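=== Structural record ===
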Amino acid sequence: MIEILIALAIIGAIASMAVPALSNFLVKSERQRAQFDLYQLQTYTEQHFTETASYPTTASLVCSTCQVSEEYDFTITTGGTGNNIYILKATPKATSSQKNDDECYTMIINAVTEQSNVDKDGDPLNSSKCWI
């Protein structure tokens, strides 16, 4: 009986270390997927401009060949100038586990693929941890 309790204690200790590591891995992998999705949507945005001479709106930012993450809301802001003629954002949905990603919360790229991140309050974050 003592041996079983010791074995359960060891398993519990290992599990208490493994679960946070797995959770962190899942957040990072979903973040990388969202980055890839932003690049796909950027390509779609440029294609849309080539075909229609205008950039899509958030409502028309529907890429039929893209399979974007369901953990993020993807938006586009147009009407800027220069490198910021348009800005694509991936913001975690309120129901997503990504909403707790304090390192990279909202991921942003502009028309020339400059990358940045902001937190929940819109304050800049250190992007060097976020982008692959």
Q: What stands out?
A: Residues 74 and 90 are 5 Å apart (CA to CA). The helical segments are 2-52.
